[in-house]
Amino acid sequence: MIVTALLTSVGINFGLCILFYTLYSILRKQPGNAHVYNARLVAEKKVKEGSHFQLDRLLPSAGWIKKAWQPSEEELLSIAGFDSVVFIRVFIF
Fold it and tell me: Which residues cross the membrane (predicted)?
């Protein structure tokens, strides 16, 4: 195995991971994307309209990662369904 090829692959994958993390963190806060990232809240009319500019929306945040790992399997099953539980079980052994 060529070490430089391995390091190149690790660097590319790490860079893409950081890019996608940053894009997700920024795009999920934009009011125009609420129907994509908060579909249930939009359907239940629980999303506040916020059309004025806020700098906080353009800064990536890691708060969603902690919230994503908090629910138990039972909570996830009742909220998101069986597909989500199976998907999460693939990653958490």
Answer: 6-27
